[in-house]
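My main concern about presentation is that the manuscript never shows what a single data entry looks like. In essence, backbone conformation is discretised, so a fold becomes a row of integers matching the chain in length. An entry of this sort, consisting of the sequence and the corresponding backbone structure tokens, reads as follows:
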Amino acid sequence: MAQSKVNSSVVFRLGVLGAMAADLFAARIEPLGLKPKHVGLLVVLDTRRASSQLEIAGVMGVAPSLVVALADHLEKLGAILRVRDSADRRRQVLTLTEHGRELLVTCGELAHSADAELAAGLTAGETAQLTGLLDRLATRQGLPTEAAGDQ
């Protein structure tokens, strides 16, 4: 029987580590009443990549109905404002509130503490090298990166 080499695949290993990292981050932000997709929506608004619910769905790669549900929750938390576009009454425009910006800062701090836990076995140089490599992969996929100044 041929031995599987899937466990040596970059895609497989990033997927497994990504799931672990996502769970770690989700646990950190849960006390704030947030899930990672909520934070993703806040990041999209903060980077001004989109403002309407439909545009946000496209940027996040999710169904518009999910954006509506995420926005409903964030609006209840006071993190976003939802207003009708005066030029197109069918269009809902979302903006961050001051509380939303504060939540995003807190989420950033929690993400960095999770980073430190995940990368605890790496030296500072190795962590910087890993971050640089991840930035290159993210840029190639069209994702915003810290290096590009998009966040």
User: Anything to note?
Assistant: The first strand starts at residue 80 and ends at 84. The chain has a mean pLDDT of 90. The two ends are 48 Å apart (CA to CA). Residues 39 and 73 are 11 Å apart (CA to CA).
